[in-house]
Design a protein that fits this description.
Carbamate kinase, eight-stranded mixed sheet, binds aspartic acid, binds magnesium ion, alpha/beta, VC0802-like, binds adenosine-5'-diphosphate
Length: 436
């Protein structure tokens, strides 16, 4: 059995949904759907109005979104019976969203509102498949996808519940399920964070020991650079799990950063495919390394660099621990680290506790902060005994000021920190020098 995940743009219009239906029918696979494109953003906006106790603002967006769905249903279904069933489904979800304008609005209600996008897309697709004579079954994610008290997925619970559901519906032609949404350890509706449908797919893949996890989106695989900033990028045919994880973590939006781990742990290949070009080869992510090749570049925005300069670091033991403990105390993860005998530079992407961190760090030396930075991450098989790859990376960036350079944490990545104003130039120059 395979797990096929279709993102927002892949189900974003009636025609796209029909194309997806054509791709999935005939195979007894599990199909994970995101909300239709733009929906989760609208639901976030609705929630913001409700937090601010502005029901009229919320209402305006709810009505606009509902109209989009009614139009979608009108184009999607052929018979009046299914048009009516589609309209009833839409009315049911939007009436429910409207009820939240009346009461206290908290994080709990927000998560319920955010869940409606995936519930709608799977409900609508299920009706379309049934209208086409396919015996599809919706496996409700809220019945099996669960996180524990640390907000991490609970693989044992997921495996047991999901396999039980599959067993109960052994006769189905195919299974549909919602990406992104789950319940937390307290049984409340929750989610796997924005973009988390990719994570749903790989968690399901791990739970059922799937033959393959396929992530279907609007581009033909992982490109060798970010196509939103660089022209003429091209798809990378094969990636190692580690390479894909680094690229996803450092900004390649095509893949959610959490998606790779469950697949890697269970050695399940992940294939990135294009709904608009279903025959294109895409990218295969597995445990195979292509020796000595630089594969791709990605960039992670909104990075802040912090430097602590201290004479006390010289020959001292425990200095790094004391510094890192401060970040830990404020629950702020560090991305990049570089050290010298008299100081440390590290980067964070969550600045909520920056002032407190800087105050505490001042105990150890002079502290300086550079905001608005970007981590550029170059990924490939860069085993340290291979010569030349660092030189070609740094040479490609010879005209750009580099605030930090980091290599040696893994064999798969060289990271460089630049000003956000230099990001596009850096990405373009790396493409030109490494791939052309
Ligand atoms: P979905 O809605 O299907 O989950 P996303 O928008 O999350 O799709 O991801 C697909 C987008 O990722 C592409 O349209 C592309 O603009 C962007 N992207 C960023 N970096 C890369 C990359 N290295 N390779 C391919 N796509 C990338
Ligand atoms: N619908 C959710 C989002 O837009 C999850 C996803 O698409 O993966 O973030
Ligand atoms: Mg995505």
């Amino acid at each position: 059995m395979k797990v096929l995940k279709f993102g927002g743009t892949s189900v974003g219009s009636a025609q796209r949904m029909i194309d997806v239906a054509n791709l999935i029918e005939g195979n007894r696979n599990i199909v994970v759907l995101s909300a239709m494109s733009g929906t989760t953003n609208s639901l976030v906006e609705i929630s913001e109005y409700l937090y601010r106790k502005n029901p009229d603002g919320a209402s305006e967006i709810i009505n606009k979104l509902a109209i989009k769905y009614y139009e979608h249903a009108e184009q999607l279904y052929r018979t009046s019976e299914y048009k009516q069933r589609g309209n009833e489904l839409i009315a049911c979800h939007f009436d429910y969203i409207r009820t939240f304008a009346k009461d206290l609005f908290t994080l709990f209600e927000e998560r319920v509102v955010l869940a409606q996008g995936e519930l709608l897309s799977t409900g609508m697709m299920n009706l379309y498949l049934q209208e086409s004579g396919i015996n599809s079954v919706v496996l409700p994610a809220l019945d099996y996808m669960r996180t524990n008290k640390n907000a991490e997925p609970d693989p044992v619970y997921i495996r047991e519940k999901l396999n039980k559901l599959l067993d109960e519906h052994r006769d189905a032609d195919l299974y549909l399920t919602q990406g992104y949404i789950c319940r937390n350890a307290y049984g409340e509706v929750d989610n796997l964070q924005r973009g988390g449908s990719d994570y749903t797919a790989s968690l399901i893949g791990a739970a059922i020991h799937a033959e393959e996890v396929q992530i279907w989106t609007d581009i033909d695989g992982m490109h060798n650079n970010d196509p939103r900033f660089v022209e003429n990028t091209s798809p990378v045919r094969r990636l190692h799990f580690e390479e894909a994880a680094e690229l996803a973590y450092f900004g390649a939006k095509i893949l959610h950063p959490t998606c790779i781990l469950p697949a890697k742990l269970n050695n399940i290949p992940v294939r990135l495919l294009n709904t608009l070009q279903p025959d294109a080869q895409g990218t295969l992510i597995s445990n195979v390394t292509e020796k000595g090749r630089i594969k791709a570049v990605a960039a992670k925005d909104n990075i802040t660099a912090i430097k602590i300069k201290s004479g006390r670091m010289l020959l001292a033991t425990g200095f790094l621990r004391k510094v890192f403990e401060i970040f830990e105390n404020y629950q702020t993860p560090i991305d990049m680290v570089t050290t010298s005998e008299v100081g440390i530079s590290c980067t964070i992407d969550n600045c909520k506790r920056l002032d407190e961190i800087v105050d505490d760090l001042k105990k150890f030396g002079a502290v300086s902060v550079d905001a608005d930075m970007v981590i550029i991450c170059v990924v490939g098989d860069m085993e340290w005994e291979n010569v030349g790859f660092e030189a070609s990376i740094v040479n490609a960036l010879k005209n750009i000021p580099l605030r930090m350079i980091s290599y040696g944490g893994s064999n798969y990545n060289v990271s460089l920190l630049v000003k956000s104003t230099d990001k596009q130039r850096a990405l373009q120059s790396l493409s030109k020098n490494l791939f052309n």
